[in-house]
Amino acid sequence: MQRFLLASLAALVCAGTAAAAGKPADKPAPGSMRIESEAQFQRDYGRQATRMAPGVYLMTQGDFAGKKITIGAPGLAHDLALLRKRLASPNLASDDRKALQAQVADLEKLARQQAARTSSKMPGARATQTSSFGCWSYDSTWRQYVYYPGTVDLSVVGGLYMDRGDGSLNWYYARLRATAIVNVYPPSSQFWHRFSVNAYATATNVVTGQTVHATPVGNIYSVGATTGYIYSGPDFGHHLTGRATGVANGDCFAYVSLEDAYQQ
Fold first, then answer.
1. Of 57, 28, 75, which Cα lies nearest the Cα of 260?
2. Which of 47-61, 129-143, 231-245 has the highest mean predicted lDDT (pLDDT)?
3. Global confidence as pTM
4. d(CA 126, CA 111)
5. Alpha-carbon distance 256 to 179, whole Å?
6. SS3 of 245, please?
7. How far apart are CA 95 and CA 162, in angstroms?
8. Are 199 and 245 in contact (CB under 8 A)?
9. Which of 25, 62, 64 is nearest to 183 (CA)?
10. With CB atoms 3.0 to 4.6 Å apart as the test, which of 26, 177, 195, 212 could cross-link to 251 if both were Cys?
C-alpha cells in the first residue's frame, strides 16, 4: 500500500514502498517531527521541550525550538478551545470560516468518540489511550482483537529564502509552509476495521490576512495535506504562521498538532 513521505521541503509526494506488517517502514524527513504517542515524544524530544499544560509542549531547544506541539485528548481539548475562539471572530473571512467550521466539527466528533472510548470497558479502550496513537480491530477469522500502530508526521517550516548572490539571504523575502501526514499500519491479515484518518495544514500571512487551507489527499490508510509555500515580500517585516494537524478516529485514536510562526 502507498505511504505518504515528505520527500522534499517543496512538495508532498506518494512513495510506493510497502511497509512491514504492523510497523512503519520509513523515517520522517528532515524538518518533520514524528509522533506515535506522548511517551515516544518524551523519549525522543522531551529534553528539548517544556510542558506548558497537559498535552501541550513548547519546544525550547534543538531544530524545533519555538514550535508548539499538542498531543492526545488533553491537547485536543486545548486546541478546540482556541479554534472555537478563533471561529467566533467577526473578522474571519468566509472561506476561512467554512474551512475552520469543518475542522472544528471533525475534532468535536473525535473528542466525543474518545470520551466514550475512555469510559468504555471494550477491549479496544486500553489500546487507544488518551495520549497514544493506537488502533484495534476484530479479526473474525482468529476471533480475537488485533492491535496495531500509526504515525503522525508534522512539519511547519518558515524563514528567509532568496539568495542575495553572496551566500546571504534577502531579508525582504520570507516564506512558510505546513505539512501533515498520517499513516496507519494494520497487519497483513484481513479483518473488519472502521477507522478514518485526516490531515489539516494551514498557513497564514498575518500582515495581509491571506490564509491557505490545504486539501487532504490519500486513501484509507494514509493521508497527507500540505499548504505549499505562502510568501511574504517584498516587505520590511514578516509575520507568517503555520499549523499542521493529524487525526484518526473510529477504531483508532490520534490527535497531534504542530504550530509555529516566522516573524521579523
1. 57
2. 47-61
3. 0.87
4. 17
5. 12
6. strand
7. 30
8. yes
9. 25
10. 195
